[in-house]
Amino acid sequence: MGLQVGMQRFMRRMILTLQPDEVQVCQMIGRMRSLIARGNGVRDAKMGNQDGAEADVMGMMAEYGFAKKMNVFPDLGLTPRSGSADGVMASGKRYDVKASKHKTARLLSTLKVNPDVDVYVLCVVDGSTLDFKGWAYKEELIREENKTDLGHGVGYALTQDKLRRFDA
């Protein structure tokens, strides 16, 4: 019930189009986070072949959009971090938003289990439009049977049909 309580108001469509000023803020913060993280030796844990700064901008847009939809303040911090949650919902559940530009993206996570995350959320980013495909509790994603190698190392993966829906 935990996440459902936090998402009850948003059970309809989870699609959001960011305004141009919101996109600019996310681009700036995403690029700054990328520079700060790499400059402080934080390993880039992306699971695709996209540019690291591009992935950080996409991730920031998805994090910002999810926080906006959940009516919580987004984490706009610029300190180097590794393994923390992207935010906390009103219900207290800590979330990690995973972003991709691929319409058929899977919810992915590295093999490093993050003790600071309760829920993983998948967002497909297309320009300024964010399409939140679904979510999974950590225990549903981090399972031996979900290990897969998509060409960039072994990690955990769930296809979109295995995710919980925001409208269920």
Order of helices and strands: HEHHEEEEEHEE
**SS-based structural class?**
alpha+beta
Shape field: globular
Helix proportion range: 25-40%
Number of H- or I-type helical stretches:
4
Largest sheet: 5 strands, mixed
Going across the major beta sheet, what is the strand order?
Answer: 1-6-5-3-2
Radius of gyration: 15 Å
Give the integer mean of the pLDDT values. 87
Distance between the termini: 11 Å
Low-confidence stretches: 5-12
Annotation, overall tally of beta strands: 8
Provide a short characterization of the protein structure.
This protein is an alpha+beta fold. It has helices at 2-7, 20-39, 52-70, 138-141, and strands spanning 15-17, 87-88, 94-100, 107-109, 119-126, 129-137, 147-149, 154-158. It has one domain (2-162).
